[in-house]
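Human: Note token order:
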Amino acid sequence: MTIEDLLDPAATLARVSASNRRQALNAVAEAASRVFGVDAAVALQGLLDREAAGTTGVGHGVALPHARLDGVDRVRAVFVRQVRLEQPVEFEAIDGKPVDLMIALFAPPDATSDHLRALARVSRLMRQPALRQHLRDAESADAVYALLAHDLRTAA
């Protein structure tokens, strides 16, 4: 699994303004609609349903929202970093800290093992303090994508 398998450069958003969890997830759903061709409302509802089952805020300012969707041909990802001037989003994360970095995963309904492998890989990746800081400091979506691509390749 490479970065190209999960994350399209067009699904890498370095400057998103959101003041709450729903707005942040809506930005993810809109990107998924634009890049993967899924219905934004369906994607948002899938993410909200998963959040209702338990927070995907994993700590250190990171959330890993995910949903299974019809119309997705394989596990796909959207990366979102909030604008630095905005307040991070309250996500009820396990450490109580607000979220400013999200990698959302979308998978076909029957892709159980692929979905879990992708989630585990992204989770391990986002546990790296230096990478999180580099992602926060990156000036552009291209820079964010390059950081993620490098780290996903070296974690393979």
User: Anything to note?
Assistant: The helical segments are 3-6, 21-36, 40-53, 112-126, 129-137, 141-154.
